[in-house]
Amino acid sequence: MNSSSSPPPQTSSTEPNSECVGPTAENAGKANSCAGCPNQSACASGKPKAEQKTQQLQHANIREALSKINQILLILSGKGGVGKSTVCFQIAHTLASRGYSVGVLDLDLCGPSTARMLGVSGREVHRSGSGWTPVYANPNLSVMSLSFLLQGEDSAVVWRGPRKNGMIGQFLTETNWVGEDDLNCLDYLLIDTPPGTSDEHISIVQYLQGALGVKGNDGQDGDSANLGGALVVTTPEEVAMADVRKELNFCMKTKLPVIGIVENMSSFQVKMQDLKFLQTVVKRVEGQTQQENQDDNNNNYNETVQEDCTYHVLNTLREKCPELLDVFASATVFPAFGTGPYGMAKAFGVPYLGGLPLDPNLLKSCEDGVCFVTSYPDSVGVNPLDDIVDKVLDALPVDDDDVIME
């Protein structure tokens, strides 16, 4: 076969869609390059252009609704049960206690826990001409959650993706975070998300980036909110970190900045005087069943039980070595895999914000809906949480002149 019988060299672009004018162009579906395209009819119908206009209008509405918010921070994990909501709500409490105006948007639509953990159970949002008025946990802390719109606390939310997306859009456009006063503003909006990287995550990131852009490259005017990025929560074991790595990859793919990783439940720490002590003892118990009677001619059998000996141990310590009562006991509940969350943060090139110990008072604060750092100032987890909040403030600063100091 000579060269003349060979196919001619390709002179056009190797990209099959290089000449596509796009579904929103004026001649979409009508250009010469549209001939033979399977989407020609859809583009020619004008539906993509109509959808684009609807999306642009929605983004404009979101940008307007969030225009008086300084910083927006998403709290992510990828894994359920790592204490993401605990971290989110206690950061919110701590910021509010320092005089910042804070809003919390709960996007865990199927399992909202905001009401209890922020101490506003049984409250309702009110709707006015300016939208939904969020519930206020205190003058500096406002909350919006689907739980306030349900008939009861135990009502199940059985929704598919489109309805979830619609609800998220409503939250962003119709929640009036700052009231009627034009001078008011919100320093921080914290958005608590459910586990995973599915509907809620995709929707909130697309809505916010479409309306506000990406940090440092938003192309919006100066009065728009700043999409600060995400704070990622994990526990140190591999079962959790495997899912958290997926969440970090999600942030990379969606160009969502990660301000840092928080290692929750890094260890269990408590003062000796707050521990409960048990001792194992063997008791002789009278037999109660026919089998036990056959096994023991005396109708008795041995039973191993644990008895509370806290009073005796603490009294002994007070008498013999009282200085030990204020010593902290520590135990590793979730052994770290490899280099743990610190190594994971280093591998992804994001900051490691610190570790929170498993503190019983932190759990109690969430159950009671109170601020941990002010309710239990001497508790072991207070300093680590304060340090994490300090780093959040460094990463996402606001004008100190706007802060209400008490």
Overview of the structural elements:
By secondary structure, the chain is of the alpha/beta class. The protein folds into 2 domains: 68-267 and 332-402, 3-Layer(aba) Sandwich (Rossmann fold); 272-330, no CATH class. It is 34% helix and 21% strand. The protein is built from 13 helices and 13 strands. The protein has helices spanning 40-44, 47-65, 84-97, 114-117, 161-174, 199-212, 238-253, 290-295, 310-320, 340-348, 360-368, 372-375, 382-395; strands at 69-76, 102-106, 126-128, 131-133, 135-138, 141-145, 186-192, 226-234, 258-271, 278-286, 300-308, 328-331, 352-358. Strands 1, 2, 5, 6, 7, 8, 9, 12 and 13 form a 9-stranded mixed β-sheet that branches. Strands 3-4 form a two-stranded antiparallel ribbon. Strands 10-11 form a two-stranded antiparallel ribbon. Helix 2 (47-65) crosses helix 5, helix 5 packs parallel to helix 6 and helix 7 (238-253) packs parallel to helix 10. The longest helix has 19 residues, at 47-65. The protein is elongated and about 95 Å long.
